């Protein structure tokens, strides 16, 4: 009785390449459980807290602050328009500008404080409430606020 070597691979039908049919009898295969060196953790990039870096064109603050203000402004404009029947321009003219200015300053400062403390924008990202969703929501709110202003201007009155 002859002992056959184990079959390792067969001919591949997809490519048509022949592969090794069997191992020679003298080949010894050993499996060693050696701990693989764990990759070194990536160092987190140090966040600059300089005023010029935080408020740079591609910095972490400008688009985020504008998006947050646009989200707040769009919702406030629609709610105030539904409640009072005034369009966006009438709301600003009838005492809404001080509220707009105060809210803009408050939200801007509240957005800048963590950045000047050196917090990373991605550090507070969890689940669906992440920085990417905030950026896209802010972009759509900016577009919505501009679209609301143009629509009310061309329509000549409130949207709702």
UniProtKB/TrEMBL annotation:
Q: Where in the cell is it found?
A: Membrane; Plastid, Chloroplast
- For this UniProt entry, what's an example GO CC term? chloroplast
Q: Which Pfam families match?
A: Chloroa_b-bind
Q: Which UniProt keywords apply?
A: Chloroplast, Membrane, Plastid, Transit peptide, Transmembrane, Transmembrane helix
Query: Which regions span the lipid bilayer?
Result: 69-85, 97-116, 136-154
Query: What's the protein's topology in the membrane?
Result: Multi-pass membrane protein
Q: Which SUPFAM superfamilies match?
A: Chlorophyll a-b binding protein
| Matches recorded under PANTHER family | UPF0041 BRAIN PROTEIN 44-RELATED
What family does this belong to? Belongs to the ELIP/psbS family.
Could you tell me what this protein is called? Early light-induced protein 1
**Species classification:** Eukaryota, Viridiplantae, Streptophyta, Embryophyta, Tracheophyta
